[in-house]
């Protein structure tokens, strides 16, 4: 099967034999920290693609797949200890400079393009006219402006190797302290066109803090970031006239489909 079900809200992966103590009672500070709602269909991440194919012009409206959305935190860069969270909301990216070892978070969102979730299909070979991703922001903390990298990455069940894995294409943008409680609409046309050119069945993106070097040292400066800026607009309501029903796959047959996702607290 193309998809592998990954069960569990939080998995701790250590690349050493040492453990990581402590609870989830954290006071997050640092150069920037952003929360993205990933709960119900009304506010879940939404991909909208206007395209042209052999049948003419069309529009695909696709909610992200909650079973493959998640975030990865590097909680101990010395011991290479990662925390991987899936099936929960909100998702985070940014740096917790007040926590032990200053953990950095990166968020991943997955939009199936082949209709496996029972939503619209983006036909392979279609020419992309315009594509946007809409995110409902739950929090922006500890910085008025949070520089962000938005990367197109190969689809996969999240593992520690994805934290600093190579990307297929990339854009940059800023999130602002005025964003929480609003929808941020991000133009991602170049990334979706790249996904089409590569015949990808899933549009998976990674959001991470830009403008700083990752604690692992693997993410450095990106000279192309300044020229590859994504346009963004902010609205109190969603652009979608009607959002599709949110499912993990057609018919809801995947284990856990339709289950309520727990809300995270820091």
Structural class, judged by helices and strands?
A: mainly beta
Overall average pLDDT: 81
Straight-line N-to-C gap = 36 Å
Beta-strand portion reads 35-45%
Helix content: under 10%
How many separate helices? 1
Q: Nearest-angstrom radius of gyration?
A: 18 Å
Shape: globular
The total tally of domains equals: 1
Instruction: Count the E strands.
Output: 14
State the low-pLDDT regions, or none.
1-29, 215-220, 250-260
Report the biggest beta sheet as strand number plus sense, adding barrel if it closes: 14 strands, antiparallel
Description:
The protein is mainly beta and 266 residues long. The model is unreliable at 1-29, 215-220 and 250-260 (pLDDT under 50). The chain has one domain. Strands 1, 2, 3, 4, 5, 6, 7, 8, 9, 10, 11, 12, 13 and 14 form a 14-stranded antiparallel β-sheet that branches. Helix content is 3%, strand content 38%. The chain contains 1 helix and 14 strands. It is globular, with a radius of gyration of 18 Å. A hairpin with a 2-residue loop joins strand 3 (46-53) and strand 4 (56-63). The chain has one helix at 189-197, and strands at residues 10-14, 33-36, 46-53, 56-63, 70-76, 81-86, 91-95, 104-112, 127-141, 145-153, 169-176, 183-187, 202-209, 232-235. 39% of the residues are buried.
């Amino acid at each position: 099967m193309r998809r592998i079900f990954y069960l569990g809200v939080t998995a701790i992966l250590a690349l050493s034999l040492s453990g990581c103590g402590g609870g989830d009672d954290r006071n997050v500070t640092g150069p920037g920290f952003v929360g993205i709602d990933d709960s119900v269909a009304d506010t879940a991440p939404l991909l909208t693609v206007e395209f042209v194919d052999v049948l003419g012009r069309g529009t695909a409206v696709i909610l992200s797949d909650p079973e493959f959305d998640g975030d990865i935190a590097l909680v101990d860069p010395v011991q290479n200890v990662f925390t991987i969270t899936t099936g929960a909301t909100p998702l985070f990216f940014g740096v917790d400079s007040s926590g032990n070892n200053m953990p950095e978070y990166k968020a991943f969102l997955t939009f199936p393009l082949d209709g496996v979730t029972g939503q619209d299909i983006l036909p392979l070979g279609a020419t992309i006219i315009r594509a946007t991703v809409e995110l409902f922001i739950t929090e922006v903390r500890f910085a008025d402006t949070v520089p962000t990298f938005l990367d197109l990455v190969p689809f996969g069940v999240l593992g520690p190797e994805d934290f600093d894995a190579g990307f297929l294409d990339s854009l940059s943008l800023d999130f602002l302290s005025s964003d929480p409680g609003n929808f941020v609409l991000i133009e991602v046309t170049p990334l979706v066109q790249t996904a089409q050119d590569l015949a990808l069945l899933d549009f998976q993106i990674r959001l991470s803090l830009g403008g700083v070097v990752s604690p692992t040292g693997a993410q450095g400066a990106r000279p192309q970031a300044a020229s590859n800026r994504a346009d963004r607009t902010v609205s109190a309501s969603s652009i979608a006239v009607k959002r599709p029903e949110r499912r993990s796959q057609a018919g809801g047959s995947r284990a856990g489909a339709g289950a309520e996702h727990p809300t995270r607290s820091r």
